[in-house]
Write a structure and sequence with these properties.
With 228 residues, the protein is of the alpha+beta class. The protein has helices at residues 18-32, 41-47, 55-59, 102-109, 164-182, 198-214; strands at residues 4-13, 74-76, 81-83, 89-97, 117-125, 130-133, 146-152, 155-161, 219-225. Helix 5 packs parallel to helix 6. The protein starts with a strand and ends with a strand.
Length: 228
């Protein structure tokens, strides 16, 4: 049983590609609608293919099953949405085995009917420490830079942050102040400010974890930065 990676994709049109984007949108919509699907349900059943299999993105666009990339072990897990900001684009998410299956999208957009389309994606799978955001620099579709997940002293939450300032503010309020509410004697040596960097945050995390462990408190804390 694999760890499942949650991936989100945004496909957009380059110059002159607006109609290609609309065609792809309608094609993917048809896969998700049994009444419009180009695939016979009996064929899918006989082949052992789920109606949400990522490989259908390629097969519905003329790629033979045997030519589908081997890196296709994943399933569409959301509706296909048409969005207009910052530019017209389509978005969808998938659950992928172990890591994002961007090879499927690469093969899809290599097809001549979609040669004027491009994409960005964001993916996370904490078990394998997969944290990828190809849109991290431009932030047109996915602005997230950091993720945090924690549990201690009855406090449990997670959050996504678009910059280091948001992460620092969250850490100071939800971590440091929460610990001090139960242990007023906790005086962190590392004081995070808006000029702090990610390594400072990790050092502050270590300090909090060490303190709570010394008090006999179970603590889980994971702070991650998305790679490009």
């Amino acid at each position: 049983m694999p760890n499942w990676c949650y991936s989100r994709y945004a496909i957009y049109a380059k110059e002159g590609g607006e109609q290609q984007l609309r065609n792809l949108y309608m094609r993917i919509q048809s896969i998700r609608d049994e009444k419009l699907s180009p695939f016979d349900p009996k064929y899918l059943k006989d082949e052992g293919i789920s109606s949400g299999w990522l490989g259908l993105l390629l097969m519905a666009n003329g790629v033979e099953k045997g030519d589908v990339t081997e890196e296709c072990r994943g399933f569409l897990s959301s509706t296909i949405d048409w969005e207009t900001k910052p530019v017209n684009h389509i978005t969808f998410s998938s659950d992928d085995a172990w890591g994002p299956k961007y090879e499927v999208i690469n093969q899809l957009l290599d097809l001549p009917q979609y040669n004027k389309l491009a994409y960005e994606y964001i993916a996370e799978e904490c078990g394998n420490e997969v944290w990828v955001n190809t849109d991290k620099k431009t932030k047109r579709f996915f602005p997230e830079e950091f993720h945090m997940d924690y549990e201690f002293l009855g406090h449990c939450d997670e959050g996504y942050f678009n910059n280091i300032r948001e992460l620092v503010d969250y850490f100071n309020i939800h971590i440091v102040m929460a610990v001090q509410a139960d242990y007023p004697e906790f005086k962190p040596k590392i004081m995070l400010t808006h000029s702090s960097n990610f390594n400072d945050v990790l050092a502050a995390q270590d300090e909090v974890e060490d303190f709570l462990t010394e008090q006999g408190i179970e603590v889980f804390m994971s702070i991650n930065e998305y790679d490009c």
